[in-house]
Amino acid sequence: LFWPNPQTAPPSLPPFLATPSSDPSRQPRLRGASAQTPLPPEVASPAPRPCPCTRQHPTRAAIRASLSASRSPAPTPPLPQPALPARVASRATPATSHFSHCRLRRAQPWLVHIAPAPRRVAYQRGPPPQPPVTPPGSPFESHDDRRLPARLLTREATPHRHFIGAAGHWASKSCASTTDCKVYLFHCSGLEIGGEMNLTAGIQVAQLALKHRQNKKQQQRIIVFAGSPIKHDKKTLEAIGKKLKKNSVALDIVDFGEEEDGKPEKLEALLAAVNNNGSSHIVHVPPGSSALSDVLISTPIFTGDGGSGFAAAAAAAAGGVSSYDFGVDPNLDPELALALRLSMEEERARQEAAAKKAAEDSTKVEKAGEQASSSRDIPISEATSSSSALPIEKKDDLMLSSTAGGSAKAQWEIHGYIWYALEAWSSSIRCSTWYNWKIFINTLNSSFKVFMANWWTMQVVRLSGRAASAFSPDSCHFKMTITFLCMNWSQDDDSALLQQALAMSVDKPESGQSSGMADTDMSDAVDQDLALALKMSVQDNAKDLSSQTEMNKVLGDQSFMSSILASLPGVDPNDPSVKDLLASLQGKAEVLYT
Amino acid sequence: MSSASASQRNQVDLLDFVDWLGVECLNQNSGHSLVNALKQGYRDDEGLVLESDADEQLLIYIPFTQVVKLHSVVFMGPEEEGPRTVKLFTNKEHMGFSNVTDYPPSDSSVLSQENLKGKPVTVKYVKFQNVHSLTIFIEDNQGSTDTTKVQKIILYGST
C-alpha cells in the first residue's frame, strides 16, 4: 500500500510504511507512472521527514562511508556498535534523515546487529572445593541437631566406593563407584545436611548399587552412618536386615549424633538380623568433643573387618602411600620416616637378640624370647576370651603377621590413609562428641593387651605427652597417636617404656587430652627424644617375665590410674561407673598377665 | 522334565570338575554350608545338611573347571524340609535373589518324595550341552517350613 503523502497516511500505519524509502530500486511502481509521465518529485523522493528524536544521527551517507571503509582490505577493529550487516547497508544508500535511520533501528530490530551477550565459559573452575568447616557458633556443631542425615557407604573388600546420601524420601547416590578416595572425599564435603533420614531407602539403594558393582567376586559390605532419628520401626529394620543377610551383605553401623530413645535398640536389632557369623559390627558413638574419625579408628570397623581385604583397600586407596616403605612419604615428613626406619631396625635387632638368647638359655629365658618374637599372638588369643565390647577375634590379619616390618607398614597404610579420609569427612559434620570413658577404657583395655612393641610407637606416645600443649584441634597433621593405642602390644619388653611414657604424659596436667589424643609436634622434640629412645631401647633388651608384674603394678596402682583419669576431660574419677571400671580393669589385668 | 530311566552308564559324577574356589551359596546357614551337600565325604553323612538361613530359599552357584554336559541331578533331603521347586540356570554368573526372575530358567522341576530319596531328575538335554557354570535356585520346600535342608546334591553328566 503506497501513500504518496506521508501526511495523509493514516496514523495506524507504522512509520516505515508511511514514509517510503527513497531508494529508486525499491520504489514501488505506481499506476499511472511511466517513463513519459514521471512521478512528481515530491512523490518520487519525498522530502525527508524531520526526526522527532533529538539525537544527532549520522546520515546515511556517513554510514555508507564508514561501511565502505570497513569493506577495505584492512580489517577494522571491532566497533563498539557492531557494523550493520550488508543488507542493511544496501538500504542505506541514499541520503536520508535521521528519522529514517532511526526508523531502521526502531522498526526492524531484527536487522540490527546487536552484540550478543558475552558467552559464559562453559566450565569455569573456581577455587578447589574445600570441605566446609562449620563455624563455631553454628547449629550443626552440637550433636543434637535433628537434621543430620544418614550417610551410606557401600564398600567392598577392594575399594570400589559408592557414596549415597540418604536424606529425605529417597536416597540419592552421590557419586559413582570409585576407587579414588579423593572423589569420595569431595562428595562428602559436598553433601548437604538437612531433611529426614530414610534408612531403609538408603540401604536399599546401597544394595542396588552393590548389585551393579564391577567386581562381583568380592564380599559386599555397607557402612551406615546414622546420625538422625530413625523413623522406621524395628520390624521394618529387621526385615531389611534379613534381606541383606540373605544376599550375604555385611553391614557396619555407626550410631552417632541424635540420640532418641530406641535408636540404639533399633540399630542393634538391625545388626542382629544382618549379622552372619560376626561379619557385621555396630559402634555407638556417644556425643562428645572428639571427632568421629578419632573414635572410629579404634573400632573393628577399621581394625578388624575384612582382614587383609580392608588393608588392601586402604593400601590401594592410598595409592602413592603404599609405595613408600612405611607408608609415610619421606618428602612430606622426613623425621617420621627416619624414626620409623630406625624403629624397624631396632625391632629386628631386638628380636634377633631375643631369639638368640632363647636358643641357648634356660626355659625361663626361652619363654621370654619366644614371647618377644611371637608376642602378638599371645595377646590376641587372650584378648579373644576376655574382651567384650570390641571383638578382637576380628583383628586385622596384619596385626598377627609375623614380621614387624610388614605389620608396621600395613598398619600405617590402614590407619594413616583412612584416618585422613575420616578426618576430612568428620570436619564437615562437626558433631561434638565427648569422649566416653567406657569406650576409652575398653580401647585401653584391649590396647594394653595388644600394644605393639615398636619403639617408635612409644616415641609418639611420649612425644604426644610432652607436646600436648601444642595440640590444636584443627590440624590433622599427625593424629596417628590414637592408632598406637589400638595396636598390638607386647607386654613384656616395653612395659617399662610404657610406664615411663604414661608417667611423662601424666606429668603434664594441663594437657587437655590423654596421651592418645594429642597431636605431636615433631619439629622441636625429635632430636633429644631420638637419642633418649635409642638409649632406652638398648637398655631394655634384658626384660623378662618379671616385668609383667610391673605392668600389674601399674594397672593395680590406684593412684596412678586415678591420676590418668583426672587428666582426661569430662571424666570424674569419683563417678561410680568409673570406679567400677577401674576395678574390672584390674581384675582383667591380673587374668592376662599371670 | 521327563522322569526317564536312570541311564547313567556313560555319565559320571561331575564332582571332579567342580571349581571349588568359585562355589557360592547365598542364604546358607553358616553352620550348615554347601560343602555338607556337595563334597564327597560330607554329603554321605546323613547328619550333615545344607540348611538355609533367613528364609527357605537357596541360591547355589557351581562353576566348573571345564565345559561339561549335564545329564541329571539328584537332590536328597528330609521329607519335610527337603527342596520342592528347583530351578536350574546355566552359565549365569553371580546371580542374586533379585534376578532369579529376570530370565527363564534353563530347567525347572518340582521334586517329589521319590526324588528326595535319590531318584535322579533328568534335565532337558538340549539346554545343558554347554555348561560352564550351574546355578541352582531352590524356591521352596516340601513342607513349607521356615528353612530348607538339603542333604545331598549329585550332578551327573559327561564332558
Automatic annotation (TrEMBL), chain A:
Annotated Polar residues bias: 371-387
Cited PANTHER family: 26S PROTEASOME NON-ATPASE REGULATORY SUBUNIT 4
Cellular component per GO, a single term: proteasome regulatory particle, base subcomplex
Record-linked InterPro entries: PSMD4 (IPR027040), PSMD4_RAZUL-like (IPR049590), UIM_dom (IPR003903), vWFA_dom_sf (IPR036465)
Lineage: Eukaryota, Viridiplantae, Streptophyta, Embryophyta, Tracheophyta
Superkingdom in the source lineage: Eukaryota
Regions of compositional bias (Low complexity) in chain numbering: 60-73
Keyword Transport: no
Keyword Repeat applies: yes
Bias (Pro residues) ranges: 38-51, 74-83, 126-138
Organism the protein comes from: Colocasia esculenta (Wild taro)
Region (Disordered): 1-84, 124-144, 351-387
GO function term, MF aspect, one: polyubiquitin modification-dependent protein binding
CDD domains listed in its UniProt record: PSMD4_RAZUL
Gene Ontology biological process terms in this record: proteasome-mediated ubiquitin-dependent protein catabolic process
Record keywords: Repeat
Basic and acidic residues composition bias: residue spans: 351-369
This protein's name: 26S proteasome non-ATPase regulatory subunit 4 homolog
TrEMBL record, chain B:
Sequence ranges assigned to domain PITH in this UniProt record: 3-159
InterPro entries registered for this protein in UniProt: Galactose-bd-like_sf, PITH1-like, PITH_dom, PITH_dom_sf
Source taxon at top rank: Eukaryota
GO cellular component, one term: cytoplasm
Pfam families: PITH
Family the entry assigns: Belongs to the PITHD1 family.
PANTHER family: AD039 HT014 THIOREDOXIN FAMILY TRP26, OS03G0795500 PROTEIN
Protein name as it appears in the record: PITH domain-containing protein
Protein species of origin: Colocasia esculenta
Lineage, highest ranks first: Eukaryota, Viridiplantae, Streptophyta, Embryophyta, Tracheophyta
